[in-house]
Specification:
This protein has 430 residues and is of the alpha+beta class. The chain has helices spanning 53-68, 73-106, 109-120, 126-134, 169-182, 184-203, 219-225, 240-248, 253-265, 269-273, 303-310, 334-343, 350-360, 368-375, 381-386, 392-410; strands spanning 2-6, 9-12, 18-22, 28-36, 39-46, 142-143, 146-150, 280-281, 286-289, 297-300, 412-415, 424-427. The radius of gyration is 39 Å and the shape is elongated.
Length: 430
C-alpha cells in the first residue's frame, strides 16, 4: 500500500524507493528514488493507467539492482538505446548493400539510358533528346516509306544488354572496332553520347558505386573511330540555275518551297521543318525559328520566301504540311531532293544547302556576323557575344540582298509588289 509524506507524494511500503507522485492537476505517475554517487535522483517509471502496481514494483526492484551494481540506470538506458539504434543502422546498411548488389548484378546500359535521358532532358532540346532515344533502338521496326524493309539496329543497341559492371574499356573498344567498319560517323556521335551517360553514372549516388570511372574515355576508341572529315558539298554560283530549275519542277509545292527556303534562309532542316503558321509574321516580314542553340531566334522574311510561303495550303498548324505524315508535317524531303539533284547533275545533301548559304553570302560581301546570326550560329568573339545587338531591319537589309542575288544568279526574275497583291516570279532564259 502507498502511504507517505504528503498528499502529493506517497511511498510504497513493499518496494523500497517506489513512490506515487500526484500533480496539483491530479495527474499521477510512479517514481523511483535512490542515491547515485551520493546524489538523490528520482526516475519516472510511468502512469498508473499503463503500469499495474506489481509491474511498477518489479521495475523499481530492477532499478535498485542496477544501482547496487554500481551503475546509473539513466546511462544503462542511454547505452541500450544507442545499441538499438546501431543495430537498426546496421540492418539498414545491410539492406542497402543487398539492394546495391542487386543493382550491380542486373542494371544494364539499356536500363540506365532512359533514366539518364529523363534526368537530363530538361536541359536539352527536343531534337537532342530524340537523338538519344534513337541511338539505342534495337531496330526491326517497319520503315516509314517501305512495307518490306525494317530499320537497322542503332549503334548503341549492341551494348544495351551489357551490365554496367561489365562495361569495361576493353568491351567499348571492341564495340568501336565493329561500328567503325560500317558507320564511323554515327559511331562517333554514339560514343560521345555514351561518354556523357557514363559520366552521369559515375556521379550518381547509386550507379557511382558500380562505375567509379568512365570506361568510355579511352584513347584507343578515339583512334579507332577516327576524326570526322569536313563535308564539302556546296552549291557553286554557276550551279544555282540548274538547282533552282530542278527543285521548282518538283510536283509537290510544299517540298519545292521547303527546299528553296532551306537554301535562301540557311536554316537547319528541322528548324524550318517545324515552322508553324503562328511563327510567320507577314505584317512585320519576319519568322520565329526554334533555335537549337538559343531556343528562339527571329529572322527576316525576304520577299521571295514570303511569296512562296503565302501560297502554301493551310491544312494544319505546320507551314510545310503533309497529308500523309502521322504528325501532319513534311517528314523526309531527302528523296525528292536527291532526284532533283540527279536531274541537275549535282551531289548535294540537305545540310549542304545550309553550307551553301554561308558560302554564297561571300559574293554579296555580307558581314560574317550578320550571315551567322541569320543562320543561328553562336556569336564568335568578344564583340559579337557582348556588344553587338543587331536590329531586325539591319538583318533584313542584307537578307533581301542575299536572296535577290541568288535569284539573279539562278535566272529567276522576281518582282515584289505592294502588300495585299500577289507577287510574280518568272524564270529568265539565259
Amino acid at each position: 500500500m502507498f502511504e507517505g509524506e504528503s498528499l502529493s507524494f506517497l511511498w510504497d511500503a513493499e518496494a523500497p524507493g517506489l513512490g506515487l507522485r500526484a500533480t496539483p492537476s491530479g495527474r499521477k505517475s510512479y517514481i523511483f528514488q535512490a542515491k547515485i554517487r551520493g546524489q538523490v535522483v528520482r526516475l519516472k517509471i510511468g502512469d498508473p493507467e499503463a503500469w499495474a502496481i506489481p509491474a511498477a514494483r518489479a521495475e523499481a526492484r530492477r532499478l535498485k539492482v542496477i544501482i547496487d551494481n554500481g551503475q546509473d540506470p539513466r546511462q544503462v538506458k542511454a547505452d541500450r538505446l544507442a545499441a538499438d539504434k546501431a543495430e537498426r543502422t546496421a540492418k539498414a546498411a545491410s539492406v542497402a548493400a543487398a539492394a546495391a548488389a542487386a543493382v550491380r548484378d542486373s542494371m544494364t546500359l539499356g536500363d540506365v539510358w532512359p533514366l539518364y535521358i529523363a534526368d537530363r532532358a530538361p536541359q536539352w532540346g527536343e531534337r537532342h533528346a530524340a537523338d538519344h532515344l534513337r541511338m539505342i533502338k534495337p531496330g526491326g521496326e517497319p520503315r516509314l516509306r517501305s512495307n518490306k524493309k525494317v530499320t537497322e539496329p542503332a549503334p548503341l543497341s549492341s551494348l544495351a544488354g551489357v551490365r554496367l559492371v561489365d562495361l569495361t574499356a576493353h568491351r567499348i573498344e571492341a564495340w568501336a572496332k565493329t561500328e567503325a567498319v560500317t558507320r564511323p560517323t554515327s559511331a562517333r556521335l554514339a560514343w560521345r553520347m555514351l561518354k556523357a551517360c557514363l559520366n552521369w553514372c559515375t556521379e550518381h549516388p547509386v550507379y557511382g558505386e558500380i562505375m567509379a570511372a568512365n570506361p568510355a574515355q579511352s584513347k584507343k576508341v578515339r583512334e579507332t573511330l577516327g576524326k570526322p572529315t569536313a563535308k564539302n558539298d556546296v552549291l557553286q554560283r554557276e550551279q544555282l540555275p540548274a538547282w533552282f530549275a530542278a527543285v521548282r519542277q518538283i510536283g509537290n509545292p510544299v517540298t519545292s518551297t521547303y527546299l528553296q527556303c532551306l537554301l535562301l534562309s540557311g536554316a537547319r532542316r528541322e528548324e524550318l521543318g517545324r515552322l508553324k503558321w503562328t511563327d510567320v509574321d507577314f505584317l512585320w516580314k519576319s519568322i520565329t525559328i526554334r533555335d537549337k542553340v538559343d531556343g528562339l531566334r527571329v529572322v527576316p522574311l525576304p520577299p521571295y520566301m514570303e511569296y512562296m510561303i503565302a501560297a502554301l495550303p493551310r491544312r494544319n498548324e505546320w507551314v510545310f504540311s503533309s497529308m500523309t505524315a502521322a504528325d501532319g508535317r513534311l517528314a523526309d524531303p531527302t528523296p525528292p531532293h536527291k532526284k532533283a539533284c540527279a536531274i541537275a547533275a549535282l551531289d548535294l545533301s540537305l545540310h549542304g544547302l545550309r553550307r551553301s548559304f554561308a558560302s554564297l553570302c561571300e559574293w554579296t560581301e555580307t558581314p560574317a556576323g550578320i550571315a551567322a546570326q541569320i543562320q543561328g550560329h553562336k556569336p564568335q568573339g568578344v564583340r559579337e557575344q557582348n556588344y553587338i545587338r543587331r536590329p531586325l531591319d539591319l538583318l533584313r537589309m542584307w537578307h533581301v540582298k542575299i536572296e535577290g542575288w541568288m535569284l539573279e544568279q539562278a535566272g529567276i526574275e522576281f518582282v515584289p509588289i505592294p502588300t495585299g497583291l500577289k507577287a510574280v516570279a518568272t524564270t529568265e532564259e539565259r
